[in-house]
Amino acid sequence: MSRDYRGASAIVGLGLAGMGAAPGFSAMELLGQAAVAAVADAGLRMSDIDSVFAATSSHAFPTMSVTEYLGLRPRFFDGTNVGGSSFELHLLQATMALEAGLCDTALICYGSNQRTAGGKLVSMSEPQWHETPYHPRHPITAYGLAASRHMAQYGTTRDDLADVALAARGWANLNPDAFARGPLTRDEVLSARMVSDPLSKADCCLVTDGAAAIVLTRADRARDLHAKPVYFMGAGAANYHRSIVQMPDLTTTAAVDSGPRALAMAGVGLDDLDLVMLYDAFTINTILFLEDLGFCPKGEGGRFVQGGHIAPGGGLAVNTNGGGLSCVHPGMYGLFLIAEAMTQIRGAAGERQVADCHLALCHGNGGTLSSQCTAILGSEAAL
């Protein structure tokens, strides 16, 4: 029987840096800025950090690089990299390490200068030997295949995909830190330049700089700190393939398993959630994850997002920061899901604040719909 980690740890510090474009800074410098801000937010000192969890697309040995740059001497560290979902997994790993007494204060961090360093998409999902002869464009070719199959099998339309992009922009327009703000019409989305049919430029995430860091400690210690804690409630992960051609079903991701595992550990149901943060690297992701996590039946995701259902004022608050589509997407986005959930649970989201936000689901995606990691966060009232 698995151990119950519900409420065992709490996030007590959050830092962001270089959101959008940060010319002149390296990926590690941005990560360092976010880490310093997160430690200060927790009311701690850098010397209090005794464990490091990191994954980046620019450092082969991320925890070594972070430790050196920040001058840390961690007792425990883990650089597990399963793509953009790494940080939801790190939440679970850090909680386990804290509960085991292997450390007292954990730093989870990420940084990228992807936009200003080159302006091109950095993908950890390089072509595999069985894909290379077909000259795919990674990772968008894989997501285009999933979108095409979903359309053919369930009747999903480009209009449905547009609803996802428009909802993200609607939330971004309420977020002063979002990189892409301003009017966006359905016609503009549908007429955008095609990149990998049926996904256009408007269906693709941003390419930005950005860094994020959070600090975790055990729940009993969190109550003694001045920062408002956000509690770890549960997490689950699942992964069955790396290459898209090995995905068992292009319309169903491993979120069908990671989601229930996280909810079971948290002891909550979908109806209990106040906020849903989904890794929207492409518009099809949001539709797939809404289905696979159980918010609607398989094949109904396109209809579920129609009519502004996930936009501001809709029936379900999804990606309230503007998501990877309109807020920020510096290569690996999973930690920014957690950052927004934490901001909302703290009641610090300003104009976009979700009323009475106590429980949030964060779902990370890595590779080409490969690694799926789900985490549930909650306020003290949710414990």
TrEMBL record:
InterPro entries: Thiolase, Thiolase-like, Thiolase_C_2. This is Thiolase. NCBIfam families: PRK06158.1. GO terms for molecular function: acetyl-CoA C-acyltransferase activity. It comes from Paracoccus aestuarii. Pfam families: Thiolase_C_1. Residues 236-378 form the Thiolase C-terminal domain.
